[in-house]
Predict the structure.
Amino acid sequence: MANSTPSIPGAESSTLSTEDQFYTDIASKNVAPLWTVLNKMVPPKPNPSSVVASWPYEDLRPVLMQSGIMVSAEEAERRVLMLVNPSMGAPYTTDTIYAGLQLILPGETAPAHRHVAFALRFIVEGSRGFTAVEGQKLMMERGDVILTPSWHWHDHGSEGDGPMVWLDGLDLPVYRFLPINFAENYEEARYPSKLSDNSSCKFPWAPVQATLDENKETEIYARYDYKSDEHRKHLSKTISGQAERVGAGATTKKVRETVSFVYHVYDGEGFSTIVTPDGKEDKVQWKGKDTFAVPAWSTMSHTCTQKSGSAYLFAVNDKPMIESLGLYKREEL
Ligand code: 1HN
């Protein structure tokens, strides 16, 4: 090495002799050679750490209900089963999205707090549950999307007579890189709130489905991107939501995006064919209320196996941050 380039000023004063010694000695100076790891740093294709994973609701619901016996919402603060990507651990459902299933039982309160992290929720089952967001009490019904924006006080409760379950989507993985997420508890269990049925933090399902159904007779597929007043294009600056309709017997085009997704089946039956960037193919069978994770840059198509009617999918995506960083790419294959 250095022997063959003795003309480099300073190299001659180096006490390093062998290559092995070079690599050992520079480590003590808190430096490392880029040339041995360059390919890993700049790989030929995206390389998410997360893998395809699915959480069928019929497997999860019984344990979620058991958690209702083991711990109260008050004790737990948030009674949630995190959806853990098997190749990563919590809080990762995908590399950039955290998701969990939350349970509130009649009369319970998940106490008021606020945090830097943004949350959106998709209501899975139950009725007469509510989330109070910064003084607005929003009743929750199946299919609603409810936002709790960054640093907004929020608590959950239920005036219903059965379990209330929803899917939480948060941008928690982001704070592994930007360690600025923190929380504050409100001095009382509930933040004072008034019933509100027209909030910028609530998106009922019916108008979303009506939009997806607009060209139902002629189009086998439709996609709807949720949009907020505040962030115009997306529900937040980090993560957002989308809904899709797949017609009976139809298979959608194969598409890949530099975006990861946590899918939740609102209604219907079918499967998704997902090829991750490393070439591994997975077929995720799904039906109503199931959830599955899709790593970024996976080629994906959905198939609805029903004889009639459409399947409806909701998904949390990380498109806002990917787009705002200028990293959004999409390909149809
Ligand atoms: C949180 O505040 C909620 O407010 C749900 O319902 C899940 C996961 C991690 C950190 C905060 C909620 C959460 C969370």
